[in-house]
Model the fold of this input.
Amino acid sequence: MGNKQTIFTDEQLDAYQDCTFFTRKEILRLHGRYHEMAPNVVPMDYTKDPDVKLPMQLIINMPELKENPFKERIVESFSEDGEGSLSFNDFVDMFSVLSEMAPRELKAIYAFKIYDFNTDNFICKADLEKTLNKLTREELTAEEITLVCEKVIEEADMDGDGKLGFADFENMISKAPDFLRAYSSSVLP
Amino acid sequence: MAVLELSLLMHVKLFSKDLALINDNTVLRFLGKNGSDVNNEEDSAAENQENGRGADKERKRAKPRTRRGHARGRARHGGEEDGDDEDGTRRAGQRRQRNRRGRGRAGGNEGSDSEGDPTKARKNQANQKSKEDDEQEEDEKGGKSGKGKNEKKQDKKADKKGKKEKANKKKKDKKKSGSGSDSDSEEEPITEEELAKLKEEVEEKKKLIATLRNKPWKMKKKLSVLKYEAQLFVEKFEGALGKGKGKKFYAYKVMMTKKWMKFQRDFENFKTACIPWEMKIKEIESHFGSSVASYFIFLRWMYGINMILFGLTFGLVMVPEALMGKPYGSLPRKTVPRAEEATAMNFATLWDFSGFAQYSVLFYGYYNNQRTIGWLKFRMPLSYFLVGVGTIGYSFMIVIRTMARNANEEGGGDDTSFNFSWKMFTSWDYLIGNPETADNKFASITTSFKEAIVEEQESRKEENIHLTRFLRVLANFLALCTLAGSGYLIFFVVRRSQKFALEGLENYGWWERNEVNMVMSLLGMFCPTLFDVISSLENYHPRIALRWQLGRIFALFLGNLYTFIIALMDEINLKAKRIKNWYLYNGTIPENSTAPPIQVDPADVPRGPCWETMVGQEFVRLTVSDTMTTYITILIGDFLRAVFVRFFNYCWCWDLEYGFPSYSEFDISGNVLGLIFNQGMIWMGSFYAPCLPAINVFRLHTSMYLQCWAVMCCNVPQERVFKASRSNNFYMAMLLFILFLSTLPAVYTIVSIPPSFDCGPFSGKTRMFEVISETLEHDFPSWFGKVFGYASNPGLILPFILLMVLSIYYLNATSKSYKEANLELKKKLQSCILKPKRKMKIRDDHLWKSCM
Done:
């Protein structure tokens, strides 16, 4: 592991540590993972901050995300252009938010983005239906889906506008007992 | 981007410089150029107002001062227009400074606004220029964007009027300092107020750095904010701030804080690197879900506790005795008796923890009752006693503390008003990375939704409820029968073993000798499976089913353990009787033996039975056999089964993998309980066998690796994946219960059974705890003993206990009322949010209708 220094400068590592919930080692490990996905495209040397982006197709095939029904949405909401391609910065950002140390508020913000499929800043019925279909692999009948969506809106919609704004969402999700655990992922070496 | 960076950099550099500018020669130009911008600044006064708290304050302060300046200027000279001009300049300059700070702060809070208007940022810098050439260039650039001509004109003017302005500057400094007479103010670069502001701001930037990771920004933005705004700002200004009186001290402080931060970060890295088995557990978590991982986390926690117990007994009891105590063979209690000498080194004997193992530091009997040992005057018996008590005290403390912390973390998760929403948004476990687990998870989510829908659509059918009720009662009845049966079996076996013991074990084979242990292990192996079958009758949610299962196995193990202990007590009493008889036969042997007229080899000295060592041996044997059973079960039940299923699947008539034997699932309840009961035995036995924590540490260490391996290679994820309840408080509560139960017999023996007279550190005393009063008598001043005597008076202790009980009652009552108040507030809050909006909507509807 003598080539540690050549990947990032110390300042870069310090900056990453300030901006994320990761330790030095984990950042290097993340870089390893990022590099591994496309060894030809991603340089080992990141000291000059190269402008490299990996397409969504590569990233959602990571074992951490592969089984996740919302993988496309996760990647999209963390990508800078909203199209799903991630630079290394976005990549680190994503796992930082998904790490166990990230606070509730931060996770709630991104969780909202993930479930907001049509990016209109509201979770409306269509979004809920999509979520439900992804969660159950479309095994529920149409009536069941409508019922569940209605129940969700009835429970969580505080201002009565028929869709969930971020305030509604945060109010609901922050009380969930499993929330922190549910939105934590880990990166394996 | 490069321009922006440069401008931000300049911004910071310039700011630091203009603080010290007043006693600089270049002040002339500074004033001149600022003057050019006055109009411009006045124009944007409205904008200034919005720009942060600082601006308003500053203006209030600046106004009266300038008014005074005007008055004075007029009174003195007609040609003092420049003075006025400069007053305006200064005012504007100061305001601009505030502005910029306000803006900087806003930038810190909401993101870097300066990115949005780079020209403005540059303009500000232009205002704050100084002598460097490159900065002049920058100024000119800034000029292009606004009033370049003006500026240049003012520049020339400034040069001409250099001297005059220098004089004015002095005047102004006086005005600034308020009293007006202070000539020192010229040396003072910044006022106290500004310094405080600056400090505040630096603090804010530091706070920004600390909380940056919590901001929902893109990483690029975070990085640039960190680098160009916060860090540079802090660095520059920490330096600038140091220009005051305590410069060196301040610089030192800054340096130390930096070092301290670095150290903390490194330490944090080090700490996370030190948590053992983190990666292993993460891997398991991703394959098997959080419920299986919770077992391994619990195991790791237990390992930590046992390490500390081991440190205590090893460092304060075993090592001192081994190093400083009398060597082996010097005393009868430290020597293998003549009759056993021949077999003392046999492996079978050692494996049984008799022979040499029995007469070593591993067991109670080896320790001498000498009050102090070695040149350190180490109080061995006292240390032994205190370590025994401290072990139990520490365990209580740590378990209760962990429980309290877990309870705190739990918070208000009891709200069920978001049933469907939570199912929708939090049921997916983002840790899952294994297709099989994911399949199971999808299935379980679907079922849970279907269940919830059914529950929602109709209240359950009547006959269904009766059937489940009947089945549940039946299941409980069966479980009770199993418990009673196993209790009776153990009772029977222990009785039989006593009979064997009375007749002499030599006449019997291996099975008869180890019958008790074997029966207990076998029961522990098969009864949980039976309970598992029974619980499938009940049709509970798996999380609730797990609790029932845990409760039942707990009862089983507890019954077994207590039957075992009662049987052991019987045996102790039997031995105690024999000791009495022995006393009767030998008359006054103890006194005689301390002053032997004839030299007898210690191995030949007749000795009494040492029941403490016997109890210790019993627990050690139990622990070892328990460990062996667990490992063998893992090897046969998991590994061999997996190998069989895997390889015989090719040539079998039905599908082994999905058919009957299949692979095994990880049995959480059994493993957790095994761990808890094992720990209970450690707590019970460690007073009589100081080696027990060491054995346990070894056991936990190996089982961590073995079980991790076994889980990863031979188990399959559960059919119904469910999330572990968030805290392990259920495990903890059981652990606490076991701890309590296991301290009972240990404390009972310490307090009410007389120790053996010829072995162990307390020999010669009527009770073990007398070692305390002995120490008080010999090692403390006499008044201390008196005070202690008064304090331990029942008249004092009883009221004290009463007081404690009352305070517990009081605290309990207050906590309950707080909880209620909390709930009430929550309700109110919810209705507060709900009501007005709903009402408004209704009112709107009404209005709408009436309009129609």
